[in-house]
Predict the 3D structure of the following.
Amino acid sequence: MNNGAGSNRAPVMEVVRDSLPRRYRAEFVFKAMGITAVTLAITFLGLLLTSIIGNGYTAFQQTFVKLEFELAPELVDPQGDRSADSLRAGNYLAVSRNSLYELFPDVSGRSDRRQLTSLVSVGARYELQRMVREDPSLVGQTLEMWVPADDDVDMFMKGRISREADESDRRLTDQQIGWLDTLAAQGRLDRKFNTMLFTNGDSRDPELAGILGALKGSFYMLLVTLGLSFPIGIAAAVYLEEFAPRNRWTDLIEVNINNLAAVPSIVFGLLGLAIFLNFFGLPRSAPLVGGLVLSLMTLPTIIIASRAALKAVPPSIREAALGMGASRMQTTFHHVVPLALPGMLTGTIIGMAQALGETAPLLMIGMVAFIVDVPQGFTDSATALPVQIYLWADSPERAFVERTSAAIMVLLGFLLLMNLLAVFLRRKFERRW
């Protein structure tokens, strides 16, 4: 009997030994495919980030020109009474032009003077007007200050426009480049940190365009989204998981919630257009409407994540609380919900990050409009950071390309922070059983 068993075992071992090389080869191929997939994903991600950063890091610097502005009373205060209306009506364009004419007195002719004054941004006159209106005592004085250069000058100083290119192929003439070389030799041309990118709203002039309006619009929308989706989503998840009876109606609700999580975001935009704008008559392009639409979109995500967190709480917690005489309500809100709260917060933050990056539903409710003024409330016309990126990407000026990439970098930074916050909250408050 033993000899028979040994003889049967020998062929089996031989079969196993013969199959080992094939199994090892299959395992090696599977590992190689996995490593290749991960490598390709990291490579493509690296190429994307390299392209964005390579195009956008220069937007955090801006070229400025140092000029001396003579605030002659007859130009900046035509009525001579230092009133707000008189200072507002001042000819600050002439003040800006005169500062350049004094540096290059040999420049004559309308065409040459137009080329010379085009080196300085139109924002210089607005900055002068703002300073004089805030401090009327400046009238009659001479100010030396740094003002933003034109976007073409900025692109030239950053190497985006080559002086070696043929004059017909670039937006700056040889004469303008010569003037820039003179200004640089005099120490009047320099690159500084671009604070206007974070303090200005949108503008038709790239050198003056900023993301403050889009940031505030996104902030107001996220406040509305958080204020609506978090309590409603948590309450719905707690009811469905802890109190709702198991019947066909709750099954139907669960199926629809899962289906809503997969609905394209533009459908929620159409819903917001039909209900919030056309039916209720809420203001178009307002963060309030955007927040309402994004709340509808993020609710399924929050409900699903919250229910998963509630399911992860061990049944023994509920049984122990009920065994000690706690009611079902006390068991849920004193024991189950606090233990599930980290997962709920994680799901909420992920849903908010998803809402921050959405564009399609906001386009449907009119937030694609060109808005210069920075919103001051929930009902003011505004745009969002993803929509601002969309608008700048469609602009033909080369300077908007770097601002588009810079805005993408800021958006990715916020998304990364929100995801890191979700990971931190989970690790800090998570309980393991």
